[in-house]
Amino acid sequence: MSLKNFLFTSESVSEGHPDKISDRISDAVVDAFLGADPVSRVAVETLCTTNRVVLAGEVRGPDTITPEVLEDITRSAIKDIGYAQDGFHWENVKVVVHVHSQSADIAQGVDAAGNKDEGAGDQGLMFGYACRETDVLMPAAIHYSHAILRSLAEDRHSGKAAGIGPDSKSQVTLQYEDGQPVRAASVVVSTQHTEDLDQDAVREIVRPHVTGVLPDGWMCDEVEFYVNPTGRFVVGGPDGDCGLTGRKIIVDTYGGAAPHGGGAFSGKDPTKVDRSAAYAARYVAKNVVAAGLADRCTIQVSYAIGVSKPLSVYIDTHGTGQVDEERLSATVQDMVDLSPRGIREHLKLSRPIYARTAAYGHFGRAPEEDGGFSWEKTDLVDDLKSAFGAR
Length: 391
Hints:
The protein is α+β, with helices and mostly antiparallel strands. It is 31% helix and 24% strand. It has helices at 18-36, 67-81, 104-110, 140-158, 199-211, 249-252, 273-290, 325-335, 340-346, 381-388; strands spanning 6-13, 41-49, 52-60, 84-85, 88-89, 94-101, 124-131, 164-177, 180-193, 225-227, 243-244, 296-303, 312-316. The two termini are 30 Å apart.
């Protein structure tokens, strides 16, 4: 029997967190290749530390994207995030590029040839999830954790949050009663700041970003509101801690409220099912919940490298489903081709839309006119309702 009264916690990190800088740079590289050639293949990792960035990985795409271009992309991303500090400065950072051509062994498994359709770029399992806790059908704790940092970043970029640096983290613990979130039990925000700001000053800069995001009456007690609990956070970003692509996969997805298959998203083109199939699973789960067929929905899909069809498709509505899960699984597979090519074409993923996903979550975002966050559309709702006679 599942718990009905409990506390649940999720965290987020800002665009200036070292791992998120790495994700941003890797995804900017993906965008550069896809913008030049939509069938490019990219798998690029980024490491960042004190005034040094290292890019490594394999690509297949236009020769016009040279190491010098990749260096310019890196500096531009760092500048856009807002790093011009002594220990990490967009202009002074040393950029080392170790990017080479994609393995022919991997390419032959992925490429379509003869009667063989495009295969998965790797083996693995991917999950999608949706629930009714928020209007974007995301778990509440991760949704509010992201929103706090996004709000703080907007004021930092505009100059309203003077003295606040790019590196920050949030953590929201929610109290659930009868299975539903009712208030924040505690909130933690740690943010980089200038020498002249003390802990109390930072606390008051942060406070409106928390109260402005949480629903009315949800703010935690003052003793459970923690801002920079160590008392000082001046040295931050890669100067304070090394960053790597793909180390924040739970921040990227559902904040621990749903399973994660293990594969990271950033730095990978959409033939990599770690990314594209996770997007497709979220897309299907969100449409199932939006159609009123369940209040919660978890979907798992799995693949083998070089094989086009998914090996398994699993749906769990956690006892909230209004329809038979086996029939639901068959129906959504009729509506959405879950092969790597089918996902890429259905969601139109071969476009330069990925740098924007690198911070504040890949899910729960608004679909954009140029195709960004296409997996957040609810354009299957009418068909799902019709298939099951729902109103």
